[in-house]
């Protein structure tokens, strides 16, 4: 399947140039680092990825704990596959005509954040699957907008360096999300506070949401006055 996809991409994808000019890798990275807005945006997305990676860590652990059997985890991923196949493209097409990229990213992050808050308080598998479905829905809304927004904020002169640097948030968020997520879950179990890790994750999501709102809101442009 992967070989077929590679052949399809090689034949039919357009030969799109990454950057408008060739520059050294070091110079490209320097340009990215000097772009304060993009750098802050990428580092802020660390919080988004801390939430996103829980699909592979805390959510499966929670499903296993509530169901009492690891076999139930497959249904969690079945929900993800079903929602992605049925809603990803229609939602992306519908929302791109009506909402800004920033609005779509923050709306998706909002759903992801507040779907995690009650997870630690549920002891019913159907209600847990419903919350996970809302989380997946938020991810479906946010992820295409995040990718497109990252590309739109990148400089055309060093787009490859910008897109590579944009994965720094995933690297840092993945590191914190995987290591810290497991640690928080264990601490919550030891303290008999199963809600604790989910409250902390929701707090991270809310802080990230506020930071993105502050960064991405339209700012007035001062008029240029020419002296005669």
Essential attributes:
10 helices; 228 residues; 74% helix; Growth Hormone, Chain: A; mainly alpha
Measured between the Cα atoms of the first and last residue, the distance is 67 Å
CATH superfamily: MFS general substrate transporter like domains
- Named at the architecture level, the CATH assignment is Up-down Bundle
Arithmetic mean pLDDT: 85
- Percent of residues in helical segments? over 70%
Low-confidence spans: none
Determine the number of helices (DSSP H or I, runs of at least 4 residues).
10
The radius of gyration is 20 Å
- Strand segment count: 0
Total domain count: 1
Order of helices and strands: HHHHHHHHHH
| Helix-strand makeup class | mainly alpha
Specify the biggest β-sheet. none
Basic shape: globular
CATH class: Mainly Alpha
Account of the protein in words:
This protein has a single domain, classed as Up-down Bundle (Growth Hormone, Chain: A). It contains 10 helices and no strands. Helix 2 crosses helix 8. The longest helix has 29 residues. It is globular, with a radius of gyration of 20 Å.
Task: Describe the protein's topology.
Layout: H1 2-12, H2 25-34, H3 36-52, H4 58-67, H5 73-96, H6 101-116, H7 125-153, H8 159-165, H9 168-190, H10 196-216
Helix pairs in contact: 2-8, 3-9, 3-10, 4-7, 5-7, 6-7, 6-10, 9-10
